[in-house]
Amino acid sequence: MELNIFINKLFQEAKNNEFDEYEVYYVDRESLSINVYNEEVEKYNLTTSYGLSFRGKINGKIGYSYTEILDEYAIEMLVKNAKESALTIENEDIQFIYEGDKEYSAVNTYYNTLENIPADKLIDLALNMEKEAKTLDNRVVSFGGCGIGYNKAKYGIINSKGLNLENKSNLLSAYVVPIIKNQEDMHDGMGYIIATSLDEVNPKLLAQDGVNEALSRIGGKSIPSGKYNTIINNEAMVSLLSTFAGVFSGDAAQKGLSLLKGKEGEIIANKKVTLLDNPHLENGLASVPFDDEGVATKKKDIIHEGKLITLLHNLKTAHKGNTKSTGNGFKNSYASPVGVSPTNLYLQKGEKSFDNLLKEIGEGLLITEFAGLHSGANSITGDFSLAAKGFYIKEGKKEYPVEQITVAGNFFDLLKNIEEIGNDLKFPMSSVGSPSVKVNGLSIAGK
After folding, report:
1. What are the b/e assignments for 67-104, b being 16+ CB within 10 Å?
2. In sequence order, which residues have a C-beta less than 8 Å from that of residue 325 and are 6 or more positions away?
3. What is the reported pLDDT for 258?
4. How far apart are the first and last CA of the chain?
5. Helix (H) or strand (E) holding 42
6. What are the DSSP calls for 171-205, one per residue?
7. Tens digit of pLDDT for each residue in 323-343?
8. Measured between alpha carbons, how far is 205 from 199 in angstroms, rounded to an integer?
9. Pairing state of beta strands 21-37 and 40-58?
């Protein structure tokens, strides 16, 4: 059944069942992933998926249901299940079907240059990434992965209040993880790109990035335990920021799962720290003109020069907090209820280059990678104890690679102890970004 016919019949059925307000949210996705190994295609996976969720308000409560098939039976099932779930809700949270905003920003999330790319071209690129890595260094003995993928999606919201929004997006990604063997030791590195056209994918450059990173780890050793002046490079800082992004959720704060509850207007970081949520970022992986409730998105400072300006809200948490939605009401999938999530979340870059940060630190530690983020970080308290890798810094230069160390600290203290922020803002295959940061006195457990 065609979508518009299905929705008209669904809304009529909802009205017949005494729903006061109702809404559908739909997603149509296509994903192609190609993985190669030993100069052959190891995996070729093309998937398409479609899903539609229904929300309806009855007696002041909103019920949910969803389907992957658009037919007459689905209409009856959606209304029946939503009504049953609404009538069993016991909490008093007020939820909303949104009438929409007057204006929505134009956000470019779809690139015509990525349309209709032949699969054989993508396969050739993937094979060439592997080939180039082997050519660059004869110590490349294997690969942790080598692949290329294309994803596109169309999604929209239509409701009984006249809201009718639709957006589409697409992106191309490629990565290669060469593994080198040096004597008895194995080391890996990664080259990757998120591209808006096929011309941006350069197999040789990606292979060089991966091989160079792997080679830089040869001869790694531990260092004595102690406190070190430290630079956390952009990619390592992204992993840390991603782990603790939930503390900026209004929903988490209202549930007592964030220490930032009630701290709007307070200084929580060094004055050089500005943290943004920017759904209109050019080429951002999470750029979007509206959230999954139909609220127009906007760029906002979460932290501005050290001061907490706002937490992130959807319509429900904004109402509970006596404030306005920040346009961060998103679903994990079409079948999920609306939660709170950031879009493109990143630390605003500073003015100093990475090399200048190294010179300023003189002697200390450069951290390039954290491990164990899921088990070694407490997203509520902010405490973390993480395995890490990096380099020892002497006279403003990399002296030797460092491994077998553990970094312990607290995310909230870290924000206060940031002394400088670099200008090397990076989004490593992620909607979370960061420049490198110089931090005063991190505790390191080594030998």
Report:
1. beebeeebbebbbebbbebbeeeeeeeebbbbebeeee
2. 291, 293, 295, 313, 314, 315, 318
3. 96
4. 66
5. strand 40-58
6. EEEEEEEEEEEETTEEEE--EEEEESSGGG--HHH
7. 999 999 999 999 999 999 999
8. 12
9. antiparallel
Distance separating alpha carbons of residues 292 and 160, to the nearest angstrom: 15
Are 271 and 305 spatial neighbours (Cβ–Cβ below 8 Å)? yes
CA–CA gap between residue 59 and residue 162 (Å, rounded):
21
pLDDT higher than 80, residue 382: yes
> What phi and psi values does residue 3 have, to the nearest 5 degrees?
-60, -45
Q: Flag whether pLDDT at 186 surpasses 90.
A: yes
3-state helix, strand and coil shares in percent for the chain, rounded to the nearest 5: 25, 40, 35
Q: CA–CA separation, 411 vs 417, rounded Å?
A: 10
Beta pairing partners, 41 = 36
Q: How confident is the model at residue 87 (pLDDT cuts 50, 70, 90)?
A: confident
**pLDDT (tens digit, 9 = 90+) per residue, 226-242?**
999 999 999 999 999 99
What's the pLDDT band for 88 if we cut at 50, 70, 90? confident
Residues above pLDDT 70, as percent of the chain: 100
Mean pLDDT over 232-261 rounds to 97
As a whole number, mean pLDDT of residues 346-369 equals 96
- DSSP one-letter string for 73-128: HHHHHHHHHHHHHHHT--S----------S---------GGGTT--HHHHHHHHHH
Distance CA 292, CA 328 (A): 8
Q: What are phi and psi of 254, to 5 degrees?
A: -65, -25
What is the rounded average pLDDT for all residues in the chain? 95
Cα-Cα-Cα-Cα torsion 114, 153, 109, 156, nearest 10 degrees, comes to: 150
Torsion of CA 231, 234, 239, 241, to 10 degrees: 80
- How large is the average pLDDT for residues 203-208? 98
Cα 183 to its chain centre, rounded Å, is 37
Nearby residues of 31 by Cβ (< 8 Å), 6 or more positions away: 45, 46, 47, 48, 149, 150, 151
Domains for the chain: give ranges and CATH numbers.
115-149+171-215 (3.30.2290.10), 219-447 (no CATH)
Segments in 383-427 forming alpha helices (H):
411-417
Reference 180, options 143, 148, 155; nearest CA is: 143
157, pLDDT greater than 80: yes
Amino acid at position 185, single letter: D
Q: Are 210 and 204 in contact (CB under 8 A)?
A: no
**3-class secondary structure, 314:** coil
